Amino acid sequence: MTRSLSFAALLGAISSTAFAQGPIDTVLRGPYVCELPGDAAGRAGIPQPDRSFTIESSSRYTAPQGAGTYLRRGVRLDMTSGPRKGEAYLVVRPGFLRERQADGTPGRLRCVLQS
Fold first, then answer.
1. Which residues pair with 32 in a beta bridge?
2. Which is nearest to 115 in space by CA: 46, 31, 58?
């Protein structure tokens, strides 16, 4: 499957009604380093350390600003309490998240699990 097809599948999942009611799940534990895409003339990614966070347990995270909880339903991860309350991410694949825009589309910010 090509990248464009998998991205199209992700966008299709976003718009489906099943997406809003997806099964409750968790994301992989560990530190997620967030970055914005760079450009061809410079770095591949521009680190955003204030946006990075660590998944501590099945529903808790910590960030530089404090701790809180999250809820994952289907491919959507919502920060439900703490300093990130109201932020949403799309689970692209295990260990790889994209910020979710208000209109449901993937944003520029990406967060990757560090091993």
1. 53, 113
2. 31
- The model carries a pTM of 0.78
Q: Is the pLDDT of residue 60 over 60?
A: yes
Q: How confident is the model at residue 100 (pLDDT cuts 50, 70, 90)?
A: very high
One-letter amino acid for residue 90 of the chain: L
Taking the C-alpha atoms of residue 73 and residue 85, their distance in angstroms, rounded to an integer, is 16
In whole angstroms, give the CA distance from residue 1 to residue 13: 16
Statement: residue 6 has pLDDT above 80: no
Q: What is the Cα–Cα distance from 41 to 103, expressed in whole angstroms?
A: 30
What is each CA distance from 24 to 9, 30, 99, in whole angstroms?
Answer: 20, 19, 19
